[in-house]
């Protein structure tokens, strides 16, 4: 079974990534990705683009070199109320989806209760369709509460390939991903594999994510990356 979707990717616009959108598309095509989401960091991330960058995503063609393009942003969760990077109405209108994520440079880890509230409240933000890498032990989380709300709101929890790589800066990712995969299986909540690519060579390469999904004996029908009909419906392509 081949993954055809990668929604968590970055370009040089994120400030700490190293490839252009054109380079990302070429490797998406090479690696069999049919739908590519470009999701540069929001402006609160040091080095991230200003809001007018997202205003202008409308110039991206919807298809390039046979790859369908979706316009997104990895939004930084900023506080316990789930507030994210500010977007004006023009920028929000240009975006197909948001990934909401906790990053230590944007929000300090807090108590389990507050970390969990930050994610639960972020799920109520407009266009948040994915919770990015909820797997870092520095942010202790109530995974049952998060999985139950994700199921209720039809939001995807990410199995982040980068979190599982040997050089990750995140802590405890393997154990935490296993925890929420078991809960997603229990409640029938869907997940999405994301490469979190910061260089084009990683686009569409999910070896760590696929390995842990196999280890967890997680149902493939709950992994959206494999199913074109689910992708079309969920992202309203």
What is this entry, summarized?
With 237 residues, the protein is an alpha/beta fold.
Descriptive overview:
- This protein is of the alpha/beta class and 237 residues long.
- 31% of the residues lie in helices and 17% in strands.
- The protein has eight helices and eight strands.
- The chain has helices spanning 21-30, 51-55, 89-94, 112-122, 143-153, 173-187, 207-215, 228-234, and strands at 5-6, 35-41, 63-64, 67-76, 97-101, 128-132, 156-160, 191-194.
- Strands 1, 2, 3, 4, 5, 6, 7 and 8 form an eight-stranded mixed beta sheet that branches.
- β5 (97-101), α4 (112-122) and β6 (128-132) form a beta-alpha-beta unit.
- α5 packs across α6.
- The longest helix has 15 residues, at 173-187.
- The model has no long low-confidence stretch (mean pLDDT 97).
Task: Please give a handful of descriptors for the protein shown.
alpha/beta, 17% strand, 237 residues, TIM Barrel, globular
CATH class: Alpha Beta
The overall number of domains is 1
CATH architecture assignment name: Alpha-Beta Barrel
- C-alpha geometry: globular
Proportion of beta-strand residues: 15-25%
Structural class: alpha/beta
- CATH level-3 fold name: TIM Barrel
User: How many distinct helices?
Assistant: 8
Q: Mean of residue pLDDT?
A: 97
Helix content: 25-40%
Largest sheet: 8 strands, mixed
Radius of gyration: 16 Å
Distance between the termini: 22 Å
Quantity of strands, as a count: 8
Spans of 5+ residues with little confidence (pLDDT < 50)? none
- The succession of helices and strands, N to C, reads EHEHEEHEHEHEHEHH
Name given to the CATH homologous superfamily: Metal-dependent hydrolases
């Amino acid at each position: 079974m081949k993954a055809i979707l990668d929604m968590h990717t970055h370009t040089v616009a994120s400030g700490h990534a190293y490839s252009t959108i054109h380079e990302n598309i070429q490797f998406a095509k090479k690696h069999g990705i049919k739908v590519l989401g470009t999701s540069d960091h929001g402006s609160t991330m040091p080095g991230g683009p200003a809001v007018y960058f997202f205003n202008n995503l409308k110039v991206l063609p919807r298809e390039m070199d046979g790859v369908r393009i979706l316009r997104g942003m990895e939004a930084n969760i900023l506080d316990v109320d789930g507030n994210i990077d500010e977007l004006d109405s023009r920028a929000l209108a240009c975006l197909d989806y948001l990934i909401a994520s906790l990053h230590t440079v944007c929000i300090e880890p807090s108590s389990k209760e507050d970390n969990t509230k930050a994610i639960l409240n972020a799920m109520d933000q407009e266009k948040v369709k994915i919770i990015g890498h909820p797997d870092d032990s520095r942010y202790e989380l109530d995974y049952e509460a998060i999985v139950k709300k994700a199921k209720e709101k039809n939001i995807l929890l990410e199995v982040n390939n980068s979190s599982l790589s040997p050089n990750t800066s995140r802590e405890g990712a393997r154990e935490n991903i296993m925890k929420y995969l078991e809960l997603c299986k229990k409640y029938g909540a869907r997940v999405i594999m994301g490469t979190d690519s910061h260089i084009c060579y990683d686009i569409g390469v999910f070896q760590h994510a696929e390995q842990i999904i196999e280890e967890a004996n997680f149902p493939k029908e709950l992994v959206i990356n494999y199913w074109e009909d689910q992708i079309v419906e969920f992202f309203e392509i």
